[in-house]
Amino acid sequence: MTASRRTPGRRPGGPDTRGEILQAARESFADKGFAATSIRAVARQAEVDAALVHHYFDSKEELFIEAMAIPVDPRLIAANIVGGPREETGRRIATAFLGVWESPEGQQRMKALFRSVVSSDEVARMMREGITQMIVQPVSQMLDVPDAQLRVSLVATQLVGVAVVRYLVGLEPVASVDVGVLIDRLAPVLQQYLTG
Amino acid sequence: MTASRRTPGRRPGGPDTRGEILQAARESFADKGFAATSIRAVARQAEVDAALVHHYFDSKEELFIEAMAIPVDPRLIAANIVGGPREETGRRIATAFLGVWESPEGQQRMKALFRSVVSSDEVARMMREGITQMIVQPVSQMLDVPDAQLRVSLVATQLVGVAVVRYLVGLEPVASVDVGVLIDRLAPVLQQYLTG
Q1: CA nearest B183 in A: which residue?
Q2: B13: CATH
Q3: A79 is in which domain, residue-wise?
Q4: Could you tell me which residues form the DNA-binding region (chains A, B) (predicted)?
């Protein structure tokens, strides 16, 4: 946020008002979690009128989905499954996820999402439904193995665990090990879950 | 703490002395960290004799485990590493952790701890330090493999991920799959991290 460089107080919408609202929302979801964040609080943080936030987003839920970029593009995930040698699927998935989380913006989004998921049953339910419908089911259909859905959800456990331990808890040495080394360790495990 | 409302100085055990010692321990672990906290310092903070702390808790490690409501005794984990055939270490670890988390009490403690870790940087720091000193370092010394600490922390990522996805997020089908099936899938992965 560049709030401190602006004249304080409410202001009309500018060229990137929507983007600034989303950034304020990410900060609020990260700091306070989903339940304690309100449209008004986000408006205050973005230094705009609450009506302007409502102009862009129908609800707190929509703001959350947009701010967190939750609609993980299923085509991207699917591309990782089918777009290359089958025996390197695990490596492609590890590389794709860690690539996002290693970027400051991706990491901030991921942390905010986790804090919201563990502090709100409603967000947990939204995430559970979204992941199931947008990732687990379509990817399972592509896999053509027994227990495909179980395999995909086991991949999810390993990815979530790395996110929590490396970025949120900061347990060493996994927290600061080179990302290439980490991918080397994760790739065979994800592969084993998917096709082993 | 209610110390300010009491006569200062050492005092004998009262009806909730154990609870007061745990509260003093939480404050000390939070203020000074795991390494710098001693039984004597906790006794001083709780305004009781060190012998009384020892009456309730055998060691600083036990005090930490109880104070933080850690759902699995880290010493049990260490015992699982060394107490049996090396090639079944992964299975023993998976069985130990899931055994605790499948019980209502163990699951409740795990969820509470996880929510605290994710929402509080201070709790995350305490856990990071405690886990490092009580699990990662001693277990790594027993393993006698290269990168032992990295291996142990990778095991942590997989266990944490299962805890989050199965019990907190409830993503199917991993959320309701039979625990025996889950152990069968996790065991070779943990084994691969440790000795592969």
Answers
A1: A154
A2: 1.10.10.60
A3: 74-195
A4: 38-57
Question: Sorting pLDDT into bands at 50, 70 and 90, what band is B72?
Answer: low
Test mutation, A34, A171, A182, A191, chain B, max B CBs within 10 A: A171
pLDDT of residue B3: 41
* Interchain pair B154, A185: CB under 8 A: yes
Instruction: Test A192 with B192 for CB contact under 8 angstroms.
Output: yes
A30 and A85 both lie in a single domain: no
Segment B143-186, tens digit of pLDDT: 888 899 999 999 999 999 999 999 999 999 999 999 999 999 99
Q: Whole-angstrom Cα distance, residue A111 to residue A163?
A: 8
Between chains, do A165 and B170 touch, taking CB under 8 Å as contact? no
Beta bridge partners of A11: A48
Q: How many CB pairs under 8 A join A and B?
A: 131
B171 touches chain A (CB under 8 A): yes
Residue-wise pLDDT tens digits, B20-64: 999 898 888 777 777 788 999 999 999 999 999 999 998 888 888
Helix orientation angle between A121-131 and A60-67, rounded to the nearest 10 degrees: 60
Tokens of A77: 């995930």
